[in-house]
């Protein structure tokens, strides 16, 4: 019996070693780590992910989660140690570069971050996410000219990604431009309809229309060499007299924009197919354009008045509200009309 004990012990040790070396289920590790991250327990998330990587050493998903957990735990040096290998991997995806970019930005490593984004965009030249985040990095360095070029490129190549419109709309709002702020801002709130950023851009839109109609010379300081801008201003100018005598309100904007859609489709729709204006036309035909304009401008202009409007136009409001929550707004490629200087 005594001779059997060492043998049994040896077998148990072998079995334990095999169990330790047996690959764990990656999805289980990820789920456990994500639950810890949701609870704010980033240290345990790091522990779980490192254990998982002991038997899945080359698993990109676990590595990304680990680098992100380090980021959340403000352990940027260890996060970069994991993530700096991502650009050299054949299977690196957009999210891999995103995470590394977040870590570089956290330690203000601008040179390496910019180098990384350039590498990423060579691999993913149509990623709105990468154009947007690269632009935000340049914006933080006060390189506004190159930032807007990147956001514009993101809009052109990935037209249904919302954040590039958000940043571009705010950029143009703080310039003398009166056109692209309105167009990009309204596209944004249709792509991202119910977030804190939506409320912010609604304010930009209302004030943007006030700027547009306040100046008697609507074309002043505008890029009238751009045919789309020229067409937009041509149609808007014909409504300026009405707006001037009635002020900028949700009701007057609804009336002006109704006339704009009708004139646009009679004069410019063939030359400039545009999903936003096609959507306006769709809402007009369905009898929901007034409700839509209240949704865009009413909450910002006068919240009590907007709430009263929804009560006195309950059927119209409910119809639009249901439609708005159940539709998907996307933009096709080939409808990019901006010309960045």
UniProtKB/TrEMBL annotation:
Alphabetical list of PROSITE patterns matching this protein: TPR (PS50005)
InterPro entries: TPR-like_helical_dom_sf (IPR011990), TPR_rpt (IPR019734)
UniProt keyword list: Signal, TPR repeat
Keyword Signal (UniProt): yes
Keyword Cell membrane found: no
Record-linked SUPFAM superfamilies: TPR-like
Signal peptide feature range: 1-19
TPR repeat ranges, renumbered to this chain: 128-161
Name the UniProt record assigns to this protein: Tetratricopeptide repeat protein
């Amino acid at each position: 019996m005594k001779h059997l004990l060492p043998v049994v012990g040896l077998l148990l040790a072998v079995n334990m070693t095999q169990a330790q070396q047996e690959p764990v289920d990656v999805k289980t590790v990820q789920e456990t780590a994500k639950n810890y991250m949701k609870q704010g327990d980033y240290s345990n998330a790091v522990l779980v992910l490192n254990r998982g990587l002991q038997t899945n050493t080359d698993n990109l998903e676990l590595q990304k989660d680990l680098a992100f957990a380090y980021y959340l735990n403000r352990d940027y040096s260890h996060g970069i140690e994991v993530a700096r290998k991502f650009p050299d991997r054949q299977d690196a995806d957009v999210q891999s570069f995103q995470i590394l970019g977040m870590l570089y930005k956290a330690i203000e490593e601008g040179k390496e971050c910019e180098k990384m984004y350039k590498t990423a965009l060579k691999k993913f030249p149509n990623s709105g996410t990468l154009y947007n985040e690269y632009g935000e990095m340049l914006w933080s360095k006060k390189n506004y000219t190159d930032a807007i070029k990147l956001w514009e490129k993101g809009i052109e190549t990935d037209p249904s990604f919302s954040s590039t419109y958000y940043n571009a709309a705010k950029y143009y709002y703080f310039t003398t431009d009166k056109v692209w702020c309105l167009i990009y801002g309204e596209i944004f709130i249709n792509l991202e309809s119910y977030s804190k950023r939506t409320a912010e851009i609604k304010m930009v839109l209302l004030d943007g229309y006030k700027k547009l109609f306040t100046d008697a010379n609507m074309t002043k300081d505008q890029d009238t060499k751009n045919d789309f801008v020229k067409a937009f201003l041509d149609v808007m100018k014909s409504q300026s007299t009405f707006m001037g005598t009635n002020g900028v309100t949700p009701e007057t904007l609804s009336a002006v924009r109704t006339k704009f859609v009708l004139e646009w489709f009679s004069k410019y729709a063939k030359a400039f197919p545009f999903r936003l204006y096609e959507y306006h036309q769709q809402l007009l035909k369905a009898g929901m354009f007034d409700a839509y304009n209240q949704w865009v401008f009413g909450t910002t202009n006068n919240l009590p008045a907007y709430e009263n409007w929804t009560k006195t136009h309950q059927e119209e409001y409910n119809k639009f509200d249901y439609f708005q929550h159940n539709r998907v707004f996307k933009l096709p490629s080939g409808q990019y009309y901006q010309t960045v200087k």
